[in-house]
Amino acid sequence: MSAPVIITAAVVGAEVTRAQNPAVPYLPAEIAREAVDAWRAGAACLHLHARWPDGRPSQEAAHFAEIIERIRAAGCDAVLQCSTGGAVGMSLDERLGSLVPGAEMGTLNLGTMNFGDGVFVNTRPDVVRVAGALRERGLVPECEVYDAGMLDTLRWLLERGHLAAPYHVQLVLGVPGGMSASERNLRFLVEGLPEAVHWSAAGVGRHQLPLAELALRLGGHVRVGLEDNLYLAKGVLARGSRELVEVAVRMAELTQRKPATPKEARNILGVALA
Ligand code: KMH
Ligand code: ZN
Questions:
Q1: Could you tell me if the CB of 146 is within 6 A of ligand 1?
Q2: pLDDT at 1 over 80
Q3: Does any ligand 1 atom lie closer than 6 A to the CB of residue 88?
Q4: Between 3.40.50.2300, 3.20.20.70, 3.30.1360.20, 3.30.465.10, what CATH number should domain 2-269 receive?
Q5: How does DSSP classify residue 6?
Q6: Which residues face 115 on adjacent strands?
Q7: Whose C-alpha lies nearest to ligand 1, atom 9?
Q8: What is the DSSP letter of 98?
Q9: CA–CA separation, 187 vs 221, rounded Å?
Q10: Burial class of residue 117, CB neighbours in 10 A (0-12, 13-18, 19+)
Q11: How far apart are CA 221 and CA 8, in angstroms?
């Protein structure tokens, strides 16, 4: 069996709604339950967003704190990663509200792009500011890469000392406005990564599971969950992110990879034990 694979579950995100899939969690208690279920199914890392009770995206510290408290109260030891991306249209100050005590990683979105019909703003000064906020709090950055030029920004951050190991890279493919989730694009991005970096792939929509399978074969880690994909199969809504994690676990076994435990994930990611 080759290297363990970190399965990250992205259980809610900021864009998907209960009208699209009734399993999308909104309340902190629901988000925590979904996250814990995904961990029980084999996810070693949990990518967290929050919502207001009516489903609007939230970066409120109180919401993140409650989600984290509930996850830990359930005995879940998964690596906890808070989104600093939030939702399109939020200010950077608002987005940084998620970096509460208990978080172990935070996302670092590497550039401005069209994101569906909106614009997801991450100017270079914004990226430097988020990198600094993560560093100040001792959080391991997960660099979100949606397009090839963002790898140049990654190198620029490293060269200027705004970013240093440990950091992780998430290749998010299939966002309308970013690179599409083709095999060619994933291979191209992986080839362009700095040496010795660990990376993961997150495919959007129907590309989620095929891209995960390819990432497993290429030696990467994988992200699945309702944030990026609402369906278990064509026309079949997932009843929760756990079902998508279960598929990722089965695919890992078929590709001779073993799902990483949270302890193994912390080792790989360079996250100090909380
Ligand atoms: N909701 C997207 C606009 C992240 O979590 O850092 C941004 C996002 C990335 O989800
Ligand atoms: Zn996210």
A1: no
A2: no
A3: yes
A4: 3.20.20.70
A5: P
A6: 118
A7: 85
A8: G
A9: 14
A10: exposed
A11: 8
CA dist., res. 145 & res. 99, Å (int): 20
Rounded CA gap, 43 and 228, in Å? 15
What gap in Å lies between CA 130 and CA 162, rounded to an integer?
10
Can you tell me the distance from the alpha carbon of 244 to that of 259, in angstroms, rounded to the nearest whole number? 14
Amino acid making up residue 233: A
Domain boundaries, the chain: 2-269
**Cβ pair 107, 83 in contact under 8 A:** yes
The 10s digit of each residue's pLDDT in 11-44 is 999 999 999 999 999 999 999 999 999 999 999 9
Rounded Cα distance between 171 and 37, Å, is 24
Single-letter residue type at 123: T
Does the global pTM surpass 0.90?
yes
The residue contributing the CA closest to ligand 1 atom 7 is 85
Q: Terminus-to-terminus CA distance in the chain, angstroms? A: 29
Question: Nearest 5°: phi and psi at 238?
Answer: -70, 140
